[in-house]
Structure formats: structure tokens, C-alpha cells
Amino acid sequence: MAETPARDKILQIISQNPGIHFREIQRMSGMAVGQAEYHLYQLEKSDKVIIKEDGNNRRYFLPDQGSLQDRKIIFYLRSSIPSRIIQSIIRSGEIDSSKILRGRKAKLEKIKKAIESMEKDGIISRKVVNGTDHIFLTDRDHVIKVIKRYRKGFIGTLEQNLLSLLDESDS
Fold it and tell me: What percentage of the chain exceeds 70 in pLDDT?
């Protein structure tokens, strides 16, 4: 059964941008906030979308959009701190955890929480090398395949993360 044109538009946006959050859907669809909320609620109620909480944001996926592990990878790639950790690991193969566990107390707690969460979800693993804790991607090739498969949907997120990183370096 076909959805309404508004819901079809939302489903198309989510299909092209898995893990997208509400404001992006609302902006890309051109719908008013209440209208977008209503249609997303109806799609959620009819199991047409899957929602994963990300702090104050809700991230949206289609149920048949890759495996559960793919959705977890996308979820972390769309979040600033986990995305930076994953990008660092991709560049270097593995990283000494002391190199990323830096910053003020509040930021340090966010980094620790991200590492614990990604380890629990099987995205990253740890090993001790010469007494030093190292973090690596559990399945690096799979993470890279997911990034390549959904690269168009990450452009906005990558731009936002880059700008955030540049803002941090100014302070």
C-alpha cells in the first residue's frame, strides 16, 4: 500500500540518508515541524521507520536498510565524537586510547561513553600492546563498505563535523 505523498517523501529522504535526525528530515522535506512530526509518528506506528535515540536527537532508519550492524555503524558515524574516533582508527588502523582520551572533564566523559558504547555494540575492540590500551575497528572492511554505500547521505554530517572540529580548534 502506497503512503501519502508526504510520507513517501520522508521515506525517500530516510532511504537516501539513513540515521538522519528530525531537523534534517524537516528541512529537506520542506514540511512544517508539526507536519513532519505527525507523519514520522504515523510511519513509526506502522513500523515503516526505526528510531534510535542519540542524546536529544532521534535518528531514523528504514527497517530493511542494511543489517542491524550497518545501522549501528551509521548511527555512530552520524554522531560527532564517535565519528571522529572511527575516522582516526580508519586512518591509522588502530589508536592508542590515551591519544583520544584527552580534554576537559565533560568532553572526556563523552569520549569514554562513546568508546564503551561502540565496544558494547561490536564496532570497536580493545587490545593491550606493550602495556598500552589500543582501540581498533572490529571489522574495518565492513565499516568502510557502509561508509561507501551510504556516502551521499553522510556529506552533510561530515561537513557539520568538520565545521565543529574547526570551531573547537579556534577556542
Answer: 88
